[in-house]
């Protein structure tokens, strides 16, 4: 007779397994904000979702497709030897300008260049000096360049559930999606099939429209460069 598993033990096992998957997966760091340093160093704020971020690591930023080296990693004004999943950190990268990293994001580089210079003491053990205006939203995903780095998605297929909408939704509709730190309008290019939102069973091929309560598999095209990963990744 099988031994019953206590709910608390099962929850602990699931949490431990989830943590192991996070640590062993490739490094993934969606960046929220950027600050330009005078000395050709770019400082970014990000949350480590999976993997480990370390100083000296060579990272690639998608969708800008820029590769550079991490100079330092900091959290709460202190230097870190490594950043683990769920850590919100700041990290500095070498020899990269704002225009290099943000070339795929229309208008962002010009906004940052036009900000007046302000003196800001970070209290950091690794970086102090003159900063230019920051607090600009980014849609960049940093990752280790040697371990399956993410890339820009020209289009992607998504499972969509319409919770509440006053009318019908058809091809050409362009809602704003939040993916990582991106906030971008994506167009419904094709409604491939309508499915049952609980079981995922196919109900109809080539549906013409969706309404509240419907679920479907939809081909989507981002209006701006965007980084999207599959569920398996």
TrEMBL record:
Keyword Protein biosynthesis: yes
Keywords annotated in UniProt: Elongation factor, GTP-binding, Nucleotide-binding, Protein biosynthesis
Pfam families: GTP-eEF1A_C, GTP_EFTU_D2
Domain GTP-eEF1A C-terminal: 156-233
Gene3D superfamilies for the chain: Translation factors (2.40.30.10)
SUPFAM superfamilies registered for this protein in UniProt: EF-Tu/eEF-1alpha/eIF2-gamma C-terminal domain, Translation proteins
Sequence ranges assigned to domain Translation elongation factor EFTu-like in this UniProt record: 47-101
CDD domains xref list: EF1_alpha_III
Molecular function terms from GO: GTP binding; translation elongation factor activity
Domain of life: Eukaryota
Family the entry assigns: Belongs to the TRAFAC class translation factor GTPase superfamily. Classic translation factor GTPase family. EF-Tu/EF-1A subfamily.
Protein name per Swiss-Prot or TrEMBL: Eukaryotic translation elongation factor 1 alpha 1
């Amino acid at each position: 007779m099988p031994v019953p598993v206590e709910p608390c033990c099962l929850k602990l096992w699931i949490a431990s397994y989830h943590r192991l998957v996070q640590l062993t997966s490739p490094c993934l760091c969606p960046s929220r904000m950027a600050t330009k340093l005078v000395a050709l160093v770019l400082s970014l704020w990000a949350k480590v979702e999976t993997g480990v971020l370390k100083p000296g690591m060579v990272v690639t930023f998608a969708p800008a497709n820029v590769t550079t080296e991490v100079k330092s990693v900091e959290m709460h004004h202190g230097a870190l030897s490594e950043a683990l999943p769920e850590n919100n950190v700041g990290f500095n990268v070498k020899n990269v300008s704002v225009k290099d990293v943000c070339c795929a994001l229309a208008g962002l580089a010009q906004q940052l260049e036009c900000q007046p210079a302000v003196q800001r003491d970070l209290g950091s053990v690794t970086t102090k000096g003159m900063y230019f205006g920051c607090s600009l939203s980014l849609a960049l995903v940093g990752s280790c360049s040697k371990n399956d780095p993410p890339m820009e998605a020209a289009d992607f297929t998504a499972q969509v559930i319409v919770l509440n909408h006053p009318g019908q939704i058809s091809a050409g509709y362009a809602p704003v999606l939040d993916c990582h730190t991106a906030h971008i309008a994506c167009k419904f290019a094709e409604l491939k099939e309508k499915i049952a939102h609980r079981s995922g069973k196919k109900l109809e091929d080539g549906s013409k429209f969706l309404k509240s309560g419907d679920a479907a598999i939809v081909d989507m095209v981002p209006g701006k460069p965007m980084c999207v990963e599959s569920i398996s990744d």
